[in-house]
C-alpha cells in the first residue's frame, strides 16, 4: 500500500468493503476448512465462467453482427403502410433499428450469446468445482485448526468480493462523473487505495477511458432508437397531409425537386411557436404535437417542422428521416435542434435540410450545413 489510507474513516463505503471481508471471514470460520475450500472453488469457478462467457460472447457477437445486418438488409424491409397495425409498425421500427445501429445490434447479440454460454459454462464450472473439491472434503470441518484455515480462506474470498465491489464502484464513477454519490464514494480512503493500487493498474484505460466512450456511443444509438418511435407515431398519414404533399409535388420530376418543393412549403407555411418554447422553458410544460396538429395550426417548433416534413415527404413517396442534435444559435453557442435528411434517388445519397430555418436562407443541402448543425441524438427512418 502507498500509505494514502491509514486507519479507519467514517465513510460508509469503507465500512461496506470491510463488512464484506468480515462477513466472509465469519462464514469461513463457521464452515471450517472443508466448506471454505468448496466455497472458494465455487467463487473462482464462477469468476472464471464470467470471464470466459464474456470473451466468447463478445467474439460471437462480433462475428455474427455483420451477418445479421446483411441478412436484414437482404430482407428488403418495406415501411408498413400507414394503416398497418401497431405491431407491424413496431416490428419494422425494432428491426430497422437493429439493422442500422451497430452497437445496438452487437449488444443484443451479446446478451443472447452470453445468456446461453453463461448457463452452459456456469453449469460446467460448478460441476468441475464440485469434483475438484472432493479431495478437500476429507478435511475436518470442526476444531481450532480447521476453523482457522477456514477463516483464512474466508478472508481471501472476502477480499475477492471486496475487489469486485470496488471495481463496480470504480466503473460507476467513470461512467457517471457527475453522478450522485460519486464524490462520497471517492472520499473513502479504502476505496481510493484499492482503486489506485489494484483496479486502475489491472484494468489500464479500459474502465476510465474506453467504457465511457462506449457508453456515450450506446446512449447516442438509444437516442436514435427512441426517435424511431416517430416511425410508429407518425405512420398514419391524415388525408389532408397526403393531399397537400401530392399537390405540392405535382409536376415535379425526381426526388430532389419534390424534396425542395416540400422544404419550401413547410418552411414558408409553418410559423415558429415561441409561446410553446416559453411554456417549456419557464414552466417545464412540453406540449407534444403530431404532424396533423402542426399542419392544422400552422405552428410548431423545430421537432414539429421536422416531423411534418418527414410525413409529407413519405406521403410523396420519398424516404425521409428526423435528425436531432445541436443548432447554432447565432450568438456563438449551440442549442437543442431538429432537422431532416431526405434520400435523393438520382444522386443516391442522403442530404440534410432544415425547414425550421428556411425563412432565414437556403438550408437545403447547403454548404457548411454541418458547421451549424451537429448531430448528437438520433435519426429516424
From TrEMBL:
Domain Transglutaminase-like: from-to ranges: 294-357
KW Signal (keyword) present: no
Spans traversing the lipid bilayer: 12-29, 41-64, 108-129, 149-175
Alphabetic keyword roster: Membrane, Transmembrane, Transmembrane helix
Record InterPro entries: Papain-like_cys_pep_sf, Transglutaminase-like
Keyword Lipid metabolism tagged: no
SUPFAM superfamilies from the UniProt entry: Cysteine proteinases
Name of the protein this chain belongs to: Transglutaminase superfamily protein
Organism for this UniProt entry: Cohnella lupini
Amino acid at each position: 500500500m502507498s500509505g494514502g489510507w491509514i486507519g479507519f474513516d467514517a465513510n460508509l463505503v469503507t465500512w461496506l468493503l470491510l463488512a464484506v471481508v468480515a462477513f466472509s471471514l465469519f462464514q469461513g470460520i463457521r464452515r471450517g476448512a472443508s466448506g471454505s475450500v468448496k466455497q472458494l472453488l465455487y467463487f473462482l469457478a464462477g469468476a472464471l465462467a464470467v470471464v470466459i462467457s464474456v470473451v466468447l460472447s463478445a467474439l460471437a457477437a462480433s462475428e455474427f453482427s455483420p451477418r445479421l445486418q446483411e441478412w436484414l438488409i437482404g430482407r428488403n424491409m418495406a415501411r408498413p403502410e400507414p394503416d398497418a397495425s401497431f405491431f407491424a409498425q413496431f416490428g419494422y421500427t425494432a428491426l430497422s433499428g437493429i439493422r442500422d445501429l451497430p452497437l445496438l445490434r452487437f449488444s443484443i447479440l451479446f446478451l443472447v450469446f452470453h445468456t446461453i454460454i453463461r448457463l452452459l459454462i456456469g453449469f460446467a464450472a460448478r460441476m468441475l468445482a464440485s469434483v475438484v473439491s472432493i479431495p478437500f472434503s476429507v478435511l475436518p470441518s470442526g476444531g481450532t485448526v480447521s476453523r482457522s484455515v477456514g477463516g483464512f480462506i474466508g478472508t481471501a474470498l472476502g477480499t475477492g468480493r471486496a475487489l469486485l465491489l470496488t471495481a463496480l464502484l470504480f466503473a460507476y464513477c467513470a461512467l457517471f462523473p457527475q453522478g450522485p454519490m460519486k464524490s462520497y464514494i471517492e472520499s473513502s480512503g479504502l476505496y481510493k487505495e484499492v482503486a489506485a493500487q489494484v483496479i486502475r493498474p489491472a484494468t489500464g484505460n479500459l474502465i476510465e477511458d474506453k467504457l465511457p466512450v462506449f457508453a456515450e456511443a450506446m446512449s447516442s444509438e438509444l437516442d436514435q432508437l427512441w426517435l424511431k418511435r416517430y416511425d410508429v407515431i407518425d405512420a398514419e398519414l391524415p388525408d389532408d397531409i397526403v393531399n397537400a404533399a401530392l399537390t405540392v409535388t405535382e409536376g415535379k420530376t425526381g426526388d430532389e425537386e419534390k424534396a425542395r418543393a416540400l422544404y419550401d412549403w413547410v418552411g414558408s407555411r409553418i410559423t415558429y411557436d415561441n409561446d410553446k418554447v416559453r411554456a417549456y422553458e419557464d414552466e417545464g410544460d412540453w406540449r407534444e404535437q403530431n404532424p396533423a396538429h402542426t399542419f392544422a395550426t400552422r405552428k410548431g417548433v423545430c421537432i414539429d417542422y421536422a416531423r411534418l416534413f418527414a410525413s409529407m415527404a413519405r406521403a410523396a413517396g420519398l424516404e425521409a428521416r428526423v435528425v436531432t442534435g445541436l443548432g447554432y444559435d447565432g450568438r456563438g453557442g449551440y442549442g437543442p435542434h431538429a432537422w431532416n435528411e431526405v434520400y435523393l434517388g438520382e444522386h443516391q445519397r442522403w442530404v440534410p435540410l432544415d425547414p425550421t430555418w428556411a425563412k432565414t436562407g437556403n438550408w437545403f443541402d447547403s454548404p457548411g450545413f454541418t458547421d451549424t448543425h451537429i448531430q448528437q441524438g438520433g435519426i429516424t427512418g
